[in-house]
Description:
This protein is mainly beta. It has a domain at 44-157: Sandwich (Immunoglobulin-like). It contains one helix and eight strands, in the order H-E-E-E-E-E-E-E-E. It has one helix spanning 2-21, and strands spanning 44-49, 71-75, 83-88, 99-105, 111-117, 125-129, 136-143, 149-157. The radius of gyration is 21 Å and the shape is elongated.
Amino acid sequence: MTMKLIYGGIICLVLLLVVAGCTQPAAPAATPAPTAVETAVPTTVATTATQVQSSTPGPTQTLPAVWGIDVQVASNGEAIDPQVITTFRGGKGLNVIPEIDITLTRSDGIVETGQMIQPLFVGKTISLAGTAGNNDRAEVWAVTPQGDRVKIFDGYIPFRSYN
């Protein structure tokens, strides 16, 4: 009698695992699946450039709903080591968007760039050196599976905000 309960319990657990694994929504049929390439490249890369660009924020675009992602850009508010932190907040494009590019135009004219690449996950961050001024401009670009760059955020990042 106890062996029937043990085998029955094991079968129930296996069925629950199979059902739980099959509940993830399928990718849309119109979107080609990206090919996975294993490389030894770090997942977060930060570089510095000294080219001066326009400091006026421009218009942004919206990704298609099936590729939608959300990012948060904020300053750490520390005067000793000011940083502008870009945080990935998730979205339907979590497994589809291969790369997110960040460009920070500081108030002293220096341009900092960074990049988030797959694997993306909620809470993934990249930190770029900012200034203690209130006119550091951040631009966030998402690269679509076709290779197009879409500007999803463009704005000034206040050094400190008191809500």
